[in-house]
Amino acid sequence: MRDETIILFWWLMFGGTHIIGSTIVVRAYVIGKIGNLGFKAVYSFMALATFVPLCLVYFAHKHAGQMFFTPNPIMQLIAHILMLGALIVLFQGLVTSSPMATLSELTKTFSPNARGIQRVTRHPQNFSFALFGLAHLLVNPYLVDWIFFFGFIIYGVASALHQDQRMLVTGPKQVRQFQADTSALPFYAIQTGKQRLALNEYNPYALMAAIIVVILLRIYHPVLFGGFGF
Predict the structure, then answer these.
(1) Overall average pLDDT of the 201-212 stretch
(2) Would you list the domain boundaries of the chain?
(3) Could you give the 3-state DSSP secondary structure of residue 195?
(4) What pTM was estimated for this model as a whole?
(5) By three-state DSSP, how is residue 192 classified?
(6) Which whole-number Å values give the CA distances from 30 to 18, 132, 171, in the listed order?
């Protein structure tokens, strides 16, 4: 089996089980059998059981296949900037409670009002995945690399759209209002006047953590993952 086919197979396994497992019909059936907490546990296990092999297979076959281009210093600089953006968005999303998050769903306690990074997009984690994938596409020019990293972009977009559709049907009124007041497309809610940037709502410690992680990756990326440092 060709290297790119193996990578594509595991992406389909991860994305397919992730999205199919959260469809309304499947989700309702499993929750009815083992409860919401049990569903979350099985769902998380399936995600790990498919994502870990995906990464292991990629690292065993990276830089394989046709080479499309030669990365240059400008592309590397843009990749650095995108990775900084990805980590800022990810960390801000992690420290900002969302009514669409698993913890909020389990505890039934959340604020429906957007804050910080949620004003930019209600799916900061998915946005960070897409930025991560795009950054690495710019500096990994081989076919296998492109299949692997482009998968993060496709998954980030597809997962966000799927969650939005499910929440419109199954989410409580407050969550549906949160969706109406925010946007999945980054900056669209700000552009249309529904939200403002509100930089004062961003967590300074999460911002510092993102900068520190980028610096550490810049130093240790060649040792840990190969390639040039991020």
Answers:
(1) 96
(2) 1-61, 67-224
(3) coil
(4) 0.89
(5) coil
(6) 14, 32, 17
